[in-house]
Design goal:
702 residues; alpha+beta; eight-stranded mixed β-sheet; globular; hydrolase; Pept_S9_AS; Dipeptidyl aminopeptidase BI; Peptidase_S9_cat; serine-type endopeptidase activity
């Protein structure tokens, strides 16, 4: 029996059929009209959205508000709980760099970060020595949406670049600030990726420009004090299928141009002794060859999958001749041990790896070759390696947490192996780790693979099938969802929920093969793994099908759409945030921002009849059918350049048309935000409270 009572009539989107024929196959899309013809311009100015489309989205929001009206008090309670677990006037531990240490802080009630610095050896808690560099709350005043990309200081500490997006469309404007006076200089750089790389003398920087299709297509060199129109084009990427970014080395010797898609890499270097030099290729792009670089004095350390090193290895190359033919192995490939990232310092080489599904930090003494790992005891946990801002150091920084252990920040001396606890995440409203249980279990997939599932629940939660469960999944791009401390999910767990993360194929949880087995032609493994996790939790009586609410966002939203079509009877409800559900239409439209770069992940249905068929067989929008769907909530952002607003809008219209069940299909479109939702830290909590209220209502736990 539905928990949604006395709902008004749901919006019914008009059908305006549009036929499309590819590879001899004709499909008809009844809701294609929801895609604005002027979407590129609308991302910059949402007010020009077609009134008919706006009217439909607002009608959906009205219906959604009616369906969720009885959760208003619950949402306020959830928000208060989540906010109560946040130290509102929190501050980071500043990172030392030269004469200063840099950090961020928040003020009580503040939505956005404040960037500050203190003298290098100053006491971090001494407010009298803090120099405020940028006040995010002040910059956000009067804006419905505001997101800061960060503040990057020059090597001489005189200036800073900071970027902001005030539409949610991820077109960032860069500004330059005098850090000694706080004065904003006249420089204003539009349509950028959000950051820049300083030249060593602090008089110029390099940055990436996004084209009209929101792709990072050009690198420019800007001299402070000159107009953007005079900036020099450094490099233009001709292939729309590649992402591009620019950065600098710790030693200030090189500017890196990193060009890559989901399976191929290319680096180009500019020596900072000659900023006008033509970028020099390290290793030309070869399909399937991935590599990344960090500088180690007179050598580069190259992390690569070359020569069949599926889980990656680390090579060394002379700075004077870094081409691939000069790479020499220093850390061998070990099948099943995936090297995720690496860093180099004057006396040590550091890398983060995943072995047996868990992360490890490994340190090698560059002089002796001796290695050691930083180890931890819990069954499931998360690590973050932030390293250091200086090259000549023996001290790096990392963070540790688990589903039950609040985040801890450590400085680690690589020479003495001494850990110094700098900070433990405070939970002002209180948290007792011993009240909770975290477990790592394994669900058998249909093909025999064992799918890791991380669980969090209270010790007093009955494990007899009666407990509601929020089952979360992502499963794409090799992204691993960490088993980290999450204060928000405690609001569910304290209400008797089991919070579960399914570490499904498409991520790299069990090595690179785990990613390969969930992409391209093997994409359906991702969906089968998630359903297998639900089956296992039902079979082992952690919960039951009637109590599982599934959740995923973006590519995880595609997962939600797929499992809704494949096994709707196994879920009480489904939450799909900014869901990538119109996969076939999107992959057929090479004008959209992410389409060409995404072909190595999903396949190219324009050129390949085979991949047209593969994608058509699972694309959630194309496979909505006449059946009973569970209660569903889709969330979108009007200016989202990654998953465009019309994907969830079309999907919901078709679901509502086809479902034979009595449960509502809801759409919430944020008319003032993009892919990441609301930008402020408390605004974001309001969105999470809304999603959790839906889960609690659907599970009958209000």
């Amino acid at each position: 029996m539905s928990v949604f009572k006395n709902l008004p009539a749901a919006p019914a989107a008009p059908k305006k059929p549009v036929a499309d024929t590819r590879h001899g196959v004709t499909r008809t899309d009844d809701y294609a009209w929801l895609r604005a013809d002027n979407w590129q311009a609308m991302f910059r100015d949402p007010s020009i959205l077609d009134p008919a489309i706006r009217q439909h989205l607002e009608a959906e929001n009205t219906y959604m508000n009616a369906a969720m009206a009885d959760t208003k008090d619950l949402q306020k309670t959830l928000f208060a709980e989540m906010r109560g677990r946040i130290k509102e006037d929190d501050s980071s531990v500043p990172m030392k760099d030269g004469a200063f240490a840099y950090g961020t802080s928040y003020v009580t009630g503040g939505e956005h970060p404040r960037y500050f610095r203190i003298p290098r050896e100053g006491a971090p808690g001494d407010e009298s020595i803090r120099q405020l560099l940028l006040d995010g709350d002040k910059e956000a005043e009067g804006k419905a949406y505001f997101r800061i990309a960060g503040l990057d200081h020059s090597s001489d500490h005189s200036r800073g670049i900071w970027g902001y997006d005030d539409k949610g469309s991820e077109y960032f404007t860069l500004r330059v600030r005098d850090l000694s006076t706080g004065e904003e200089l006249g420089d204003r750089i539009e349509n950028t990726g959000g950051g820049g790389a300083w030249a060593p003398d602090g008089t110029s920087f390099f940055y990436t420009v996004l084209d009209e299709n929101h792709r990072p297509s050009k690198i420019f060199h800007h001299i402070v004090g000159t107009p953007q129109s005079e900036d020099r084009l450094v490099y233009e990427e001709p292939d729309a299928g590649f992402f591009m970014s620019v950065g600098g080395s710790l030693l200030d010797d090189f500017i890196y141009i990193d060009i890559h898609d989901h399976e191929t890499s290319e680096y180009r270097l500019i020596p900072t002794t000659d900023l006008a030099a033509e970028p020099k290729i390290v290793a030309e792009r070869v399909t399937g060859l991935e590599y990344s670089m960090t500088e180690g004095g007179d050598v580069f350390y190259v992390l690569t999958n070359a020569d069949g090193a599926k889980d990656f290895k680390i090579m060394e190359a002379p700075v004077a001749a870094p081409q691939k033919e000069n790479w020499r192995e220093v850390v061998a490939h070990k099948p099943g041990t995936l090297i995720l990232s690496h860093m180099a310092y004057a006396r040590h080489l550091v890398w983060l790896q995943r072995r047996n599904g868990l992360p490890e930090i490994v340190i090698r003494d560059r002089r002796t070759g001796e290695e050691h790992a930083i180890t931890f005891a819990e069954e499931a946990y998360s690590l973050g390696l932030s390293g250091a801002a200086e090259y000549d150091t023996d001290v790096i920084r990392f963070s540790y947490s688990s589903m039950t252990t609040p985040s801890q920040l450590f400085d680690y001396n690589m020479q003495t192996r001494e850990r110094t606890l700098l900070k433990t995440q405070e939970v002002p409203s209180g948290h007792e780790p011993d009240d909770y249980v975290t477990r790592r279990v394994f669900a058998p997939a249909p093909d025999g693979e064992q799918v890791p599932v991380t669980l969090l629940y209270r010790k007093d939660t009955p494990l007899d099938g009666s407990a509601p469960c929020l089952l979360y999944g992502y499963g794409a791009y090799g992204i691993t969802i960490p088993a980290s401390f999450n204060t928000n999910c405690l609001s569910l767990v304290d209400r008797g929920f089991i919070y579960a993360i399914a570490h499904i194929r498409g991520g790299k949880d069990k090595g690179f093969h785990w990613y390969e087995d969930g992409k391209m032609a093997k994409k359906t493994n991702t969906f089968n793994d998630f359903i297998a996790a639900a089956d296992y939790l039902n079979q082992e009586r952690f919960t039951s099908y009637a109590n599982i609410v599934a959740e995923g966002g973006s590519a995880g939203g595609m997962l939600m759409g797929a499992i809704a079509n494949m096994a709707p009877e196994k879920f009480r409800g489904i939450i799909a945030a900014v869901p990538f559900v119109d996969v076939l239409n999107t992959m057929l439209d090479d004008s959209l921002p992410l389409t060409p770069p995404e072909w190595p992940e999903w396949g190219n249905p324009i050129e390949s009849r085979e991949f047209y068929g593969i994608i058509a067989a699972y694309s959630p929008y194309d496979n909505v059918d006449t059946k009973s769907y569970p209660a569903m909530l889709a969330l979108g952002g009007l200016t989202d350049p990654r998953v465009t607003y019309w994907e969830p809008a079309k999907w919901v219209a078709k679901l509502r048309e086809k479902t034979t069940g009595s449960e509502p299909i809801l759409l919430k479109t944020n008319m003032d935000a993009g892919h990441g939702g609301a930008s402020g830290r408390f605004q974001r909590l309001e969105e999470i409270a809304f999603e959790y209220a839906f889960a609690i209502k659907v599970a009958g736990r209000m």
